[in-house]
Amino acid sequence: MSSSHVVVIDPRARRVTVKVTPARFLSDVLKEACAKLGLEAGQYTLKHNKKNLDLSCPIRLSGLSSGAKLELIQISHSPSVVTVALQVPDNEVCDPSKVRLTGKFQSTTSLWLILRKFESEAPSMNFTARGTPQTSNANPGAAGRLYYETPVIHAMGRELSSFGDMQMTLRDLGFNNGSTLLRLSFKPTEKPLEEAMLEIGQYFKDVENTEGDSRSPTEGSSSAANVAGRHSEKAKTIGSQPQESYNGESSTTRLMEEKTPNPEASADEPVVGPEKRLISVYAPPSNSMPQAATHTFNAADYEPTIDQVRAHQAHLSFTAQNRRLLSDAELATKQRAAEERLAKVSDVEIKIRYPDQMQLVSKFTSVDTAASLYGFVRSTLKYIDEPFSLSYTSPKGPKTVPRDDKVRLIKDLGFEGRMLVNVAWDEGTSTQARSAGALKELFARTAREIKVQEIQALQAAEEQEKREGKGKERATGGDKREGFRPKWLKFPGKK
Q1: Which of 244, 380, 411, 468 has the most CB atoms less than 10 A away?
Q2: Is 226 in contact with 220 (CB distance < 8 Å)?
Q3: Cβ-proximal residues to 467 (8 Å cutoff; 6+ apart), any chain
Q4: 2: nearest Cα among 16, 15, 20
Q5: 10-19, 84-93, 111-120, 426-435: lowest mean pLDDT where?
């Protein structure tokens, strides 16, 4: 670069000039710019021409032109995951395949904790508490005394060896995502081992009490992962409650099922079906017109109230706001929470709806697979050799149940509470099977009708009268005293 400076622009359009050299790292440029602007460097990154810059690179490798203008962009508060490969000296390992150690760490993990983490995984290796005996003849009284041998980390042309350098995190070095390679070597010092250990305790005591022995992000080491875990606990508590309706049914049907008890539930007991499962069979509707279409409706019910309009506007405003994407740690925590929630589900009630609108309800356990569901449905069909498929409605839309004996209904497909599964004939099904009833006669004759009690419409006459009364009261000024005349109404004559 012919010019020895770059211009950094923050989100508020403030500009600062940072002097640079070809060997200076972009992470140092970010720190100096944030210091001048009074911002925290750990919450920002640099962008040039709408592309994020690699903060671990020096200026000469960044491709920036003279006097380049860099944008200061705020990043996610949650730490990201970085894959770290630590290359140790050849004389430290016996197995050549273990010269390079790999692990996943959060970007807020310090270099010292990374070394401690690899030490815990390989007990035979010692990176942070090495001592070498004194071999020089300059001080004969110190012969045989152990002196500290400090670790030295080489990262992108940097040499980090002091205790202060070991407190730097991956984010401080510019590693916010992806993978990186750290080379490890050792350098003897003139500091006795016992003094070095005391100094290590002063530097890293607070860090180790907070972080532990450098647990990886997959083990939940960072505070950000703990925060995401608390949100997922709330989601898990809500999600663990049993669903009260079948997925895919209309809201009107769910409301009727919640408020109206089934009068036949206690009178009619389930029937033993295939595979010794208890089943309940329901007949299709006898009337071609839906029951809801036979009721009169009030047009005023479709007019939104002021509160509903305000809630709708608030929802639109909320959805229009830009929100950051979840980090890898938060996604992993969310996935683990969903798996733990499904692991607690022991059974699921599945309603199977056939092409002729016959319905069969039975329970399936956590060990049942998609293939067992297909086998159960086939054993209830009158024509068992006809091809068919099963589908269900997931939060992401309709999906087909796979024909796989390794896919479990609860663990893999996410079935829980109550589920609705539809049976559809595939191509090649005979006309006789399509026109005839789907269920075997043994189960079809046990079908009973679904009796839904009618919900009486709410009488809003009194509320309408109250509204009309308030309107008249406002029109008359709110005072019904006889002979009352407001002060603003004056007649000519007596004042």
Answers
A1: 380
A2: yes
A3: none
A4: 20
A5: 84-93
Q: Which residues contact 484 (CB under 8 A, 6 or more apart)?
A: none
Q: In sequence order, which ranges of 245-369 are alpha helices (DSSP H)?
A: 251-259, 306-320, 328-343
Q: What is the pLDDT of residues 182-233, one digit of tens each?
A: 888 888 888 888 888 887 776 665 544 544 444 444 443 333 334 334 333 4
Secondary structure element (H or E) that encloses residue 155, with its range: strand 146-155
- Residue 398: which of 255, 247, 286 has the closest Cα? 247
Give the span between the Cα atoms of 330 and 306, in whole angstroms. 38
How far apart are alpha carbons 348 and 415 in whole angstroms?
7
Q: Cα-flanking dihedrals φ and ψ of residue 94, to 5°?
A: -90, -35
Distance between CA atoms of 254 and 296, rounded to whole angstroms? Answer: 20
Which residues have a Cβ under 8 Å from the Cβ of 71 and sit 6 or more positions away?
A: 8, 9, 46, 47, 48
Q: What is the pLDDT of residues 16-35, one digit of tens each?
A: 888 888 888 888 888 888 88
Question: Residue 453's pLDDT is what?
Answer: 67
Cross-strand partners of 133: 146
d(CA 23, CA 495): 95
Q: Residues 77, 325: contact at Cβ < 8 Å?
A: no
Rounded to the nearest 10 degrees, the angle between the axes of helix 193-211 and helix 111-121 is 90
If you count them, how many residues does the chain have? 495
Distances (CA, A) of 82 to 5, 125, 185, 327: 30, 23, 21, 12
DSSP state of 142: G
**CA dist list (Å): 74 to 21, 171, 230:** 25, 14, 24
Phi-psi region of 426 (alpha: psi -120 to 50; beta: other; left: phi over 0): beta
Measured distance CA(354)–CA(359) in Å, rounded: 6
| Concatenated DSSP letters of 110-125 | BHHHHHHHHHHH-TT-
Query: What is the distance between the alpha carbons of residues 415 and 397, in angstroms, rounded to a whole number?
Result: 14
Which residues, in sequence order, are CB contacts of 114 under 8 Å at separation 6+? 84, 86, 103, 105, 170, 182, 214
251: CB partners within 8 A, 6+ apart: none
Which of 361 and 94 is assigned the larger pLDDT? Answer: 361
∠27-29-32 over CA atoms, to 5°?
Answer: 110
Tracing tokens 């390989």 back to the chain, one arrives at 122
The owner of tokens 């589908």 is 391
